[in-house]
């Protein structure tokens, strides 16, 4: 835990193989990280870290955090993504691939609150649904569209997301043609 105690001076922390980490790592990290200097955080394959531990970490403002990668953190839930959307409003890239607990609410909050989000990679999020994005697409009846990161987004990867439909991806592409969108089969969506 000595490394964790030194983290307050870090601008980035990248853990690529977190299989052996437990909640204590993240809770101790939460005690030491300073929100105005921490820019990049990667914590991959942290199979044993629970959502309450992640929520504790993201319970304080982290306005300088721009890049966040939580790939294969299998206990990650929508509640944590909601916390991230509040704690990290200036996030520019977010990756949470192969996180089986995620559905739609967390992604919806990220897209709706992190208005500088340029890259969103949700590959393999098997329970993610269209509902995460519907609020940000113009309605046929001319109803109001929610403010979103789609205005600045460059890349949206929804490869292997079983419940995100091609029709929705085409609608997003029509409204936001500047975004590179990847469908279930990792094919770029084109008009």
Explain how this protein is built.
The protein has 191 residues and is α/β, with parallel strands linked by helices. It has a single domain, classed as Leucine-rich repeat, LRR (right-handed beta-alpha superhelix) (Alpha-Beta Horseshoe), CATH 3.80.10.10. The protein is 27% helix and 12% strand. It is built from six helices and seven strands; from the N terminus they run H-E-H-E-H-E-H-E-H-E-E-H-E. A seven-stranded parallel sheet has the order 1-2-3-4-5-6-7, with no helix packed on it. Strand 4 (93-95), helix 5 and strand 5 form a beta-alpha-beta unit. The protein starts with a helix and ends in a 9-residue tail after the last strand. The mean pLDDT is 93.
Structural class: alpha/beta
In the CATH classification, which architecture applies?
Answer: Alpha-Beta Horseshoe
Quick one: CATH class? Alpha Beta
What is the total number of structural domains? 1
Features:
single chain; 191 residues; alpha/beta; 6 helices
How are the SSEs placed, and which strands pair?
Elements: H1 2-6, E1 12-15, H2 23-32, E2 40-43, H3 51-57, E3 67-69, H4 78-87, E4 93-95, H5 105-113, E5 119-121, E6 155-157, H6 166-175, E7 180-182
Parallel strand pairs: 1-2, 2-3, 3-4, 4-5, 5-6, 6-7
Helix pairs in contact: 2-3, 3-4, 4-5
Task: Characterize this entry briefly.
This protein has 191 residues and is of the alpha/beta class. 27% of the residues lie in helices and 12% in strands.
